[in-house]
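Milestone M4 deliverable, item 7.
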Amino acid sequence: MLDIFVVDTTGQIRVTLWDTIISSVLVDNTYTFKNLAVRNFKNETYLTSTKSTKITRSESIDDAVQFESTAAVPTTIVGAVAEVKSTQSFMCKSCTRKLPTLSKDEKYNRCPHCKMLQRTENFVSYLTATINVTSEDENDDNQTSKLTIFNTQLNNFCTLHDQEELLQDPLKMDESFLEDTFAFNHFDNIVDSFAIM
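Output delivered:
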């Protein structure tokens, strides 16, 4: 998942890009977007890519509009993880849809959506963690915050700490969260980055 902002003469809006479409865009380039979906979450309207989204590079526009950041300031919570639940899901590389189940012990699996039979290792694994963090800040009175960490941030953390094997085992991921104190940078309880203290 990658959030970008698109700007034109009418204004600016956040666009959430998913999966393989992320590599289709570069900063400060001009694109035409087709088949985006409109979403609303916590009174914010934004756009999101779908499996039918098409992005094509366009000529630069003469009257470029500058992006005005209206993003919230990140909040940092330092504390211990009291509870955690990591959920692993899989996506078909062919149709980019989420699979309801995957038999990891089987050599092959069939996508129920596109009906393609594929090697099990070809399905893309995604991990998401929901955590309850008890703040160590004296001003917070040991308040607990519920945060969500998506696959990109988990992947970045595991790669940085040479623990990529945790991405394939939700139980070991959960256990690793319970062993240390962390600093979580988040926007509206969605973790942007985190580090061991």
